[in-house]
Amino acid sequence: MNAQELIVYLTEKHLDAVFEAARALPADKLDWKAGPESRSALDMLQEIATALGRFHDAFTKRKIEFNPQQYQDWMAERSQLTSIDQLEQRAKKETQWLVDFVRAMNPADLDLPVEMPFPGEFKLADIVTYHYWNCSYHQGQIYYIGTLLAK
Question: What value does the mean pLDDT take over residues 114-131?
């Protein structure tokens, strides 16, 4: 398995896993929050389902420009997706875009720099692996929500 095959494998695996975690919650608790500043599983899935589509420039142009209005627009767009089935369908569509991108890229491109709107140095390798990392991270958070609901 080469690096690109590994990225595809992990991306698809972790996308399925985060939706499995969300489906383990009681259906009426998808939007439940532990506190006023906490995030719900719904909010996390909305991020997963829409972030790739919002940030294609990170992959194709290796640069993201992001301002407060774009953030507001993104939040409004993603708030329209409220069912787990809608979210999973959108996430799978966006993930397929990423999978196709990764499979078609030159392996040497993984080392190319990407300009981000926050401090730090980023390579395309960071950007193409962020989606699976984000799915894995939110999977843990969603399972934690489940433990809070079980108390």
Answer: 95
The pLDDT of residue 16 is above 90: yes
Q: Give the separation between CA 34 and CA 16, rounded to whole angstroms.
A: 24
Residue listed under structure tokens 């595809």: 8
Query: What pLDDT, on a 0 to 100 scale, did the predictor assign at position 118?
Result: 85
CA atoms of 134 and 119, how far apart (whole Å): 19
What is the signed CA dihedral for 81, 86, 90, 91, rounded to 10 degrees? 100
Six-digit token string for 124: 């395309």
Q: Tokens 């767009």 label which residue?
A: 77
Q: Give start and end residues of each alpha helix (H) in 1-151.
A: 3-24, 41-54, 56-60, 68-79, 84-104, 124-150
Query: Token pair for residue 150?
Result: 């079980």
State residue 65's pLDDT score: 86
Radius of gyration of the chain from Cα atoms? 16
What span, in angstroms and rounded, lies between the C-alpha atoms of 56 and 35?
Answer: 33
First to last CA, the chain: 43
Per-residue pLDDT at 67? 87
pTM over 0.85: yes
